[in-house]
Structure formats: structure tokens, C-alpha cells
Amino acid sequence: MQIKYRKQKRHEFKFTWEGKLKDVNMSSVELQHKALEWRVNISDFDTNVFLEILLKQRKAEIAKQFLKEHSGELTITDFTLHSIGIILSRLGQPNTFLEFLQDILPNVIVESPCG
Q: Where are the domains of the chain?
């Protein structure tokens, strides 16, 4: 059984959270590995799309374009949201997480596997 969360009115992405981690001296992959240390027995691949933008790394524009082109069609896991939340919380940026959620949630479907 899957639980789907949705539906707020879609809006254009604002990306107000872009670059908020640019001073963190890690790649998106390194930060994802760190998130796995902070959360046990879970892996996810789409978190890196958001981390590229947060870190304002070389693939950030590609990631932003992908999100824009697929707005309203994307499904992400609740783990992706939790991973970003853990990362931003541990790095002392809870307000950035709120900005991220306000921008992302109207444009994606969040699935939570049960069982």
C-alpha cells in the first residue's frame, strides 16, 4: 500500500533555497553519504537532484531544468524529504528546509511505502 500526498495548486519553482549550502565543503554524493550515516538502513537516489541545487554545484542548472520540465509529474519518497530535512537541520539551516518544502511540495507527489 502506498500513501500519496498532494494536491496544492501548482506554482512556478522559486528556488529560494538554491545555494544555501554552497559553503559546505562536500559534494552532493558526499553529503548523501553523510545523510546515510545520520539515518540507518535507507538509500535513495533522487535526493542528489535537490542537493546539487542546494550546493549550487555544476549540475545545479541541469537539475533545476529537470524539475521545471517535470513539475507536477514527479514522485519522490518521504525519505528524500527526510534526508534533506536531516541534512539542513544538522547544518543549522531549518529555515532553508521550510523554503525547500514550500517550493517542492506543490510540484511533486510524495510517496511513503508502508509495511
A: 14-113
